[in-house]
Design brief:
The protein is mainly beta. The protein has helices at 3-6, 28-41, and strands spanning 46-54, 57-64, 69-73, 79-85, 88-91, 96-99, 104-106, 112-116, 120-127.
């Protein structure tokens, strides 16, 4: 039996546990496919994995199942959101941004929420401290 058949979808395997902070290349498409499977199966409808962790920077790959959301929360500081697949809406009380494949937006410095109109994969990049 091969290693991918021995672990549940979306569960990290040996090659998936490394992130770019370790000097490894991260296969975003492959990691994203596993996270989308995990998100569809999860009660919360989401799954995430940090793919880069270096001093001053964190990049997180986030999968959301269709019609699920990240409830309103505080902005993480200087950050961007890139939609890699699907369609999401980033919304504050005052404004909404629609992101499709390959769209990028700075995250506003105020409370916001993220809604998946379709199964979606996004990349959250946050400047730390």
């Amino acid at each position: 039996m091969n290693a991918s058949a021995e672990k549940p979808p979306g569960a990290p395997g040996p090659a998936d546990e490394a992130h770019a902070g370790d000097g490894e290349v991260v296969a975003l498409r492959r990691a994203g496919e596993g996270l989308l499977e995990a998100a569809r199966a999860a009660d919360a409808g989401r799954a995430a994995r940090t793919v880069v962790a270096v001093p001053g920077l964190r990049v997180t790959l986030l999968a959301l199942a269709a019609d699920r959301e990240l409830a309103e929360h505080e902005a993480p500081g200087a950050a961007t959101l890139t939609c890699l697949a699907g369609r999401v809406r980033l919304a504050t009380a005052e404004r909404e941004w629609v992101l499709n494949d390959s769209d990028l937006v700075p995250i506003p410095d105020r409370r916001h929420r993220l809604v998946a109109d379709t199964d979606a994969l996004v990349l959250l990049t946050v400047r730390l401290g």
